[in-house]
Amino acid sequence: MREYKLMIPGPVEVSREVRETFNRPTVAHYGEEWAHFYLRTTERLSSMLGCTGQTFILPGSGSVALEASASTFAPERRSLILNNGFFGERLYNIFSRYSDECEKLNFEMGKPIDPDVLNELLRGKRFDIVVFTHVETSTGVLNPVRDIAEIAKSHGALVIVDSISSAAIEKLDMDSWKVDVVVTASQKGLECPPGLGIVSVRSENMQEIRNSRKRSWYSDLSVWLDYFEKWHDWHPFPVTLPTNAIMALGKSLDLIEAQGLAEREAQFERTSQKVRSCLKEMGFELFTSRDFSAHGLTAVNTLGKIKPSELVKFLKEKFSVQIAGSLGELSSFLFRIGHMSTEQIKTSNLLTLLVGISDFLRVKGFPCNTQKAISEILEQ
Predict the structure, then answer these.
(1) CA dist 271 → 142, 192, 375, 380 (Å)
(2) Which distant-in-sequence residues (6+ apart) come within 8 Å of 288 by Cβ?
(3) Both ends of the chain: CA-CA distance in Å?
(4) Pairing relation of β-strands 196-201 and 54-59?
(5) How far, CA to CA in Å, does 335 sit from each of 7, 10, 26, 192, 324?
(6) What is the pLDDT of residue 211?
(7) Which of 17, 152, 241, 261 has the most CB atoms around it within 10 Å of its CB?
(8) Angle of the 86-95 helix axis to the 62-73 helix axis, nearest 10
(9) SS3 159
């Protein structure tokens, strides 16, 4: 299979150190030494997310982790999904299978969730759980987690956040923001190969896990907590774990911690601003306002000038670079660029991408100020 430089919003390009760790000889998924490594890795994830509770690492995608949060917390409860895009819709599809009552509060795609609208709804109607994305990956919108959580908690609701496209990129502090559950995955901001779903739960909610209404086995966190408590010293999880993937995650956490979260978040913010300035110079429009754009990806509106699918194909064939189209009704005019990992945001990778886009525009007969766009990337 041909290799491409992945400039998509996940899975991301990973570092040489992470790849080398992933390719080490496989080790057993049980025993005192492995249990210590696994537990230390979960503690480091909790710390990164600002959580004094517990983190669970599940083999599978981020959707597996979302399902685990739904099967554990949603049964016999009323759930409200805040939906402003494709992945908000997916949250509804997952939680509606477990929650006795599940409703959507829809917002315009390309715009953030409005906390005031949520507050008005909760004044007149009670929900036990409020669920939403931190970053809506289909449009690149950054939702105001802290404000939403504050309102939801003031009305007595449990707060569950899909942080799959934001963890280790955007600021997030579960304890101080009163976010009860955060779900993420390995293949985006955590800069690892795909295959690990992650659920972090605040300490105040651990008893709710123990009391969960049993609707499944694999995705029920009470099963995982039971093994954690009873088999803690040698097998603190119920299934065979992909040890190489978790070792790679440990190495990635080494690199993230060495850089420091504050500097890392600032770096992604600076890079996202540069990428967007370049695209504007090339004649594109951003789908979302810079005021609420995520810092790990950019959604670009072609304004009908080009077909996103043609650009995606051109970059793959001519430059061995892969970007993403969008999803659903957005696919005819939107493409997305991922800048979620330290490999993706290297100057050489960004320059290759931008030169490729400018070549495509030239082929299509559109003028493009390539030199000025490139100078944006080269500026320190």
Answers:
(1) 16, 20, 13, 10
(2) 110, 111, 139, 140, 141, 299
(3) 36
(4) antiparallel
(5) 11, 14, 38, 23, 6
(6) 87
(7) 152
(8) 40
(9) strand
282: closest CA among 343, 364, 163?
364
User: Quick one: CA dihedral 350, 356, 358, 364, positive or negative?
Assistant: negative
Give per-residue pLDDT as tens, 167-211. Answer: 999 999 999 999 999 999 999 999 999 999 999 999 999 999 998
CB neighbourhood size of 16 (10 A): 8
Q: What pLDDT, on the 0 to 100 scale, is given for residue 213? A: 78
List CB contacts of 293: < 8 A, sequence separation 6 or more. 140, 141, 142, 272, 276, 286
Burial class of residue 207 (count of CB atoms within 10 Å of its CB; 0-12, 13-18, 19+):
exposed
- Two tokens, residue 271: 């890079």
Tens digit of each residue's pLDDT (9 = 90 or more) over 356-365 = 999 999 999 9
Q: Which DSSP symbol is given to 35? A: H
User: Kind and range of the H or E element at 199?
Assistant: strand 196-201
According to DSSP, the residues that pair with 321 across neighbouring strands are 5
Beta bridge partners of 297: 338
Write the secondary structure of 11-34 as one string of H (helix), E (strand) and C (coil).
Answer: CCCCCHHHHHHHCCCCCCCCCHHH
Whether the Cβ atoms of residue 136 and residue 88 lie closer than 8 Å to each other: yes
Which residue segments constitute the domains of the chain, with CATH numbers given? Answer: 5-9+261-378 (3.90.1150.10), 16-258 (3.40.640.10)
Beta bridge partners of 54: 201
Q: Is 218 helix (H, G, I), strand (E, B) or coil?
A: coil
Q: Which amino acid, 378?
A: L
The predicted model gives 153-178 an average pLDDT of 98
Say how far apart CA 53 and CA 206 lie, in whole Å. 7
Q: What is the pLDDT of residue 182?
A: 98
Length of the chain: 380
The first and second tokens of residue 157, run together, are: 């609701």
- Please check whether residue 205 is in contact with residue 158, taking contact to mean a CB–CB distance below 8 angstroms: yes
Q: How many distinct helices (H) and strands (E) make up the chain? A: 14, 15
Let me know: does 48 contact 254? Beta carbons within 8 Å: no
Q: Is the pLDDT of residue 96 over 80?
A: yes
Rg (CA), the chain: 21
Place of tokens 């956490």: 253
Q: Give the three-class secondary structure for 233.
A: coil
